[in-house]
């Protein structure tokens, strides 16, 4: 595999040539990424040429509907699922909320679900409310020192009453990439379905959901170089069991069953721009693929290789610095480039100091209050969080490391 051509990558993101951002290094990608040019181009085209009710009989309407269908089909193909198993919603938080309402109708009092305290609140809080209806909620807890989830602990809390297991592909704080395939196999063996929150993982390469085995997989497109849409894969095995949450006359259409709100036509259509970008990325780097899954796998692996290369020196520095507590693994191959630090100094003040040097980082609890509490970190004080993705350069990471050494 060739090295990632970061100059080509950055040429696909207009933000890097905009004057207000030109001298800035973006290290808050976990909160939302820059948008790639193909998505912007498709948004502009839709708003200027196709901003009509889609699926009608006249040309502009037919073009609008066709582009929306194209987005679903192409994105599903890259993720290894069927077109009707992928749907779009206003956000991942809203998609989870709708799923909870469906599961609420399916489960009976005395049956159980499993949630974790490693999650972003969006994939744990709504599920926990099922307790109000007599559903048992079991918490799979992280190790209080490392923040990691132990598969053996999951095994120990499963039995025939558990119907659903919910966990993140990757934590937005400790960054560890959870072994989804292994965990899904454990849950399935106990007769439970699996819901995976991929919001913090997908920016680093879209997964092959078929290979992972997850029954539900969710992520946010605005963190994956796209528009503010939630992407939700619901496999047929669970999708056809869950009660319809949409209009009654759409109940036999899987991708409409869990999207009660009308879709944002332009943003759905623009999702094809993500696949445009991934395909251009693959072609530029010499990928010869036989199908969309192979293209997606190539893009995923090259992005990850670049990120791991940049991340390891940063982790080495932070793991040996007694001014901070690095949350999560210090092995870049085991985590995403989302790095949270418990600091002696106020993390907000450190973030402000870094901002003056053109380094954009985050500070706060990042909706992972339960996880921070489990790790003994005051959520009100929060952590300093540094995050990047494949368009970050080695020079930017070096600049960040030098600035951190001055300001920690």
From TrEMBL:
SUPFAM superfamilies: PLP-dependent transferases (SSF53383). Keywords: Pyridoxal phosphate. Residues 26-234, 303-400 form the Aminotransferase class V domain. Coiled coil: none annotated. It comes from the Bacteria. InterPro entries: Aminotrans_V_dom (IPR000192), PyrdxlP-dep_Trfase (IPR015424), PyrdxlP-dep_Trfase_major (IPR015421), PyrdxlP-dep_Trfase_small (IPR015422). Pfam families: Aminotran_5. PANTHER family: CYSTEINE DESULFURASE, PYRIDOXAL PHOSPHATE (PLP)-DEPENDENT ASPARTATE AMINOTRANSFERASE SUPERFAMILY. This is Cysteine desulfurase family protein, VC1184 subfamily. It comes from Epibacterium ulvae. The lineage of its organism: Bacteria, Pseudomonadati, Pseudomonadota, Alphaproteobacteria, Rhodobacterales.
